[in-house]
Amino acid sequence: MRRNILLLFVFVLSLSSCENQFDPAVENFKDLDFMYTDPKFAQGVLTSAYRYLPDEYSNTEYATDDAVTNDRGNSYLQMATGSWTASYNPVGMWVDGYGAIQTLNTFIERSDDVNWVEDPEVAELFNMRMKGEAYGLRGVFLYYILRNHGGYSVNGDLLGVPILTEFQDSGADFNIPRASYQECVEQILSDLDMAISLLPIEYNNVAGPGQIPDKYANIVTLSSNYNRVMGDFSNQLLNGQIAMAFRSKVALMAASPAFRNGSNIGWDEAANYSADVLEYIGGISGLASLGDTYYSNTSELNGLSGGNNPTEILWRNNIETSRSSQESTNFPPSLFGDGRMNPTHNLVRAFPMSNGYPITHPSSGYDSSEPYINRDPRLSNYIVYDGSVLGVNDTPIYTGTNSGTDDAINRLENSTRTGYYMKKRLRMDVNYNNADGSWQGQINYTPRIRYTEIFLNYAEAANEAYGPTGASSNASYSAVDVIKAIRERALGITDDPYLDECSVDKNKMRDLIRNERRLELSFEGFRFWDLRRWDEDLNEPARGYDASTNEVFDVEQRLYEDYMVYGPIPFSEVLKYSALLQNNGWE
């Protein structure tokens, strides 16, 4: 953990200014005490923590049964095929997570003494907001560290990770044992609750003093002062609703099969935390009608400005203008892309028919000779299969080995390995043709939290706590109600006999909810972690489909050991600190 102090020191130097870049004066290097007199510097310390947040488009699907990649050197491919060790961990969050927490602890300890502004009520608001952000972010980072590194230790106890709530200077004792899993969950929830108490639910300008939220009414008298700190200008910073969403995430994880023996969090609590978020947007009526195609809703995307969000998005990263990186990485070769994300036939088979029945159900009407006819519209929205059209010119994509095209299976190094390419995350109006000078990028962003995720969190927890048709104590809707709304949006059907069939059986409903989660959140970095918290089989081979021969074939074996449900503590940390127990199997 000493490296985290170095990271913070390097960050402090990076904030420093100097008149002569070759021979800077000593006084131009600012130490942390400069926070007290320079509010911009203090804010920069807080802002730096945001940079450590993981990208939700992490492509961990490459290490699951949902996708492979044609990049043979990819770290997730290596991890899934036998190279995952405590020394080689592509999903490690230890260094970045604790680096961010060290920074946040520094900020929290000093924030009360910062001279934010001369106006005392504005200064108090700034301090409240930024401390709220800092507590919330600390909970967020501890959640990620716990998710990635918590597990059963060599002693057989379900442990979390070390909890750091104070800045560790060079003289601190770094030989800190891992806290229990439950203690970590409690610390995360405590930090998120603190954030919720300090922050507004959303950052919005108010028209007059009467609209100032009650928690700030005894602090600020002028709406202009409130708007200066808590108004639209602060959009995309962590707010109360985002903290509430992370309570939903951590509670769902803690209640899941892989962790529930070490957690006091039950499914009812997970459902309530999710309902808290959903009630704010009106419950079921708040499900965005175009939420399943958030990445390609042209008018929404082109209308983004000033930190506003589409109705599907709770939190996102910054807008990228004239972007084509996702398309250049994932378009097929015929559209000048690298074709990196190759969905599996496993995932394709998970999409139901347009009538809502799984393709294996006797009432589905599935025809294996016409495998893509009358399927769930999400299949053609999310995945490119043989005969799909793609791009600005609706170019047909043929993936069969006998098609004679560069898009065919294993034709080139950047061709598909499975017979499929990813379509989700991509804009069809991006032209990546650099050869004739017609290149055109478009506006896009990466979501951090979609409301659909929280709806699915609620459905899963509510089904486990109350059965398919029961509701949380602070909601009026059931798991069935949520899944009905999601499937009606996707399939365009109001009559859903398969959902009716599942609604009388908690186990069938569980399978349906998990499958809907797999489809709705595909290619967004969830499957890798969902399989582990469900304690499901990790070694389902990744399969492909050759449209030229109608052959289903194994593309890539998964080589996970049973203990790999839980990730390792970094080997270098275990070597240095005797109190830090390794997770079982990673010794």
From TrEMBL:
UniProt xrefs under PROSITE patterns: PROKAR_LIPOPROTEIN
Q: Which residues form the RagB/SusD domain?
A: 312-586
Pfam families found in the cross-reference section: SusD-like_3 (PF14322), SusD_RagB (PF07980)
Q: What is its main location?
A: membrane
Q: Which domain of life is it from?
A: Bacteria
Question: Which residue ranges does the record assign to the SusD-like N-terminal domain?
Answer: 56-208
One term under GO cellular component: cell outer membrane
Keywords from UniProt, A to Z, are: Cell outer membrane, Membrane, Signal
| Subcellular localization(s) per the UniProt record | Cell outer membrane
Signal peptide location: 1-22
> What family does the entry list?
Belongs to the SusD family.
Tell me the protein's name: RagB/SusD family protein
Organism (species): Zunongwangia atlantica 22II14-10F7
Q: What is the lineage of its organism?
A: Bacteria, Pseudomonadati, Bacteroidota, Flavobacteriia, Flavobacteriales
